Amino acid sequence: MTRRLLTHLRHVDLAVPDYDEQREFYAGVWGLTEVANDTGLSFLAAEGSPEQYVVRLRKAQEKRLDLIAFGAADTGDVDALADSLIAAGVRLISTPGELGTLGGGYGFRFFDVDGRTVEVSAEVETRRHRRIEEKEAIPVRLSHVVLNSPDLNRTRAWYKQHLSFALSDTLSSPRMGELMHFMRINPQHHSLALARGPHTSLHHISFEMRGIDEYMRGTGRLLRAGVRKIWGPGRHLAGDNTFSYFFDPHGNTVEYTTELEQLDEDAWHPHVYDLSQPEVADQWGTANPMNELVAKESFNDPDRGCFVAPPV
To answer: Which part of the chain is the VOC domain (predicted)?
Structure first.
């Protein structure tokens, strides 16, 4: 196995026109903690995570995915990745150097094949975090992010070639072919998944809960608060994780999950799961049926930030 230069998913940054409403949602009913707020930027941490923040909100006229940030083990790996990307002709936004964002660190940014901004960093200051207690139904950490791509296999090949993401599993259907690839950079079944969609956009952001009870309590809290549920509660077959999907105030899909599968990478062989089989989408059979209407809910709006770097 090729030595990976990425270690984990750090944070997902969103530009939002409805900034105050989004801050209230994520720091309120969703259960994150606002740790800094400065001139239209809000940094939101998960109480169980050492990351400085897992979501950043930026006030903007247009909704977009600002960036996805991954960690590296050290500055040497950051430099090695930058050199590799430059040699391969990948378009860098910045070269490796000291970061001016919360927690500092050393890193750089670049565009992926679809034009999304990706950041890789090391030596970011860790945040004092804590153990999430029994029945405390707030996110422990960021789990994974899923992206829509109009050319699914081109995007998969790019992340494999340039960032050493390995394929864990694929969702397919007899009528539509391959629909989603689950990709990993560590033993977690997926830190990134790629979904086939009509345009480049964010599919969903997923947050890990302490356990099944906390996951269900959080799901119930959102339902009681009137947050619009898209799909769930249920349990996927690929990754073996639970799921409850909701809309944030501006139509981005966010998920509560728990118990995402940890793989023995030396022994693992990717599966191709037939999504027309109901147990593939939901092993429990408790969620509303997966159909084309549910799938379209996560297409999101076309991303206006492709090949346009965020201002901060």
So the answer is: 8-123, 141-259
Is the predicted pLDDT of residue 70 greater than 80, yes or no? yes
In the prediction, which pLDDT does 291 show?
82
Q: How sure is the predictor about 10, in pLDDT bands with cuts at 50, 70 and 90?
A: very high
Average pLDDT, integer, range 212-218: 98
pTM of the model: 0.97
Same domain for 155 and 291, yes or no, is yes
Q: Quick one: 167 and 273 in the same domain?
A: yes
Predicted pLDDT of residue 1 = 57
| Count of domains for the chain | 2
Residue 41 placed within a domain: yes
Give domain status of residue 252, yes or no.
Answer: yes
Q: Please check whether residues 269 and 215 belong to one and the same domain.
A: yes
pLDDT at 3 over 90: no
Q: Is residue 127 part of a domain?
A: no
Residue 308 belongs to a domain: no
Q: How far apart are CA 206 and CA 141, in angstroms?
A: 9
Same domain, 195 and 290: yes
Residue 193 belongs to domain spanning: 141-297
Residue 292 — very low, low, confident or very high, per pLDDT cuts 50/70/90? confident
